[in-house]
Amino acid sequence: MLDILPNRNVFDLEMYFQALTTRKSVKYVVIDMSKSFFKAARFCFPDAVIVIDKYHVVRQVNWAFENVRKAEQRKFCDQRRKYFKRSRNRTLFLAS
Questions:
Q1: What is the predicted pLDDT for the residue at 19?
Q2: pLDDT category, 89, cuts 50, 70, 90?
Q3: Rounded CA gap, 33 and 53, in Å?
Q4: To 10 degrees, what angle do helices 10-18 and 35-44 make?
Q5: CA angle 65, 41, 57 (to 5 degrees)
Q6: What is the mean pLDDT of the chain?
């Protein structure tokens, strides 16, 4: 870790990154899914590859699966819905 900034404001991020003397040699920028981080990285490191960190990608996929699981469980009859309530471990997704 190099530094912790007080906010995620695009202007402040760009000012901070522009002050870096080695920014022209940056090849990769790893960010979370923040739009402000993406805008600042694209502006300040135009030749760098921007990579979304693994944690945030996996989190989005897990949330999507959880939303599908809950939506499908809402279609069940009462007895089956109670059986599968809070049942991440019992849920099986099958491709059709």
A1: 93
A2: low
A3: 8
A4: 30
A5: 10
A6: 85
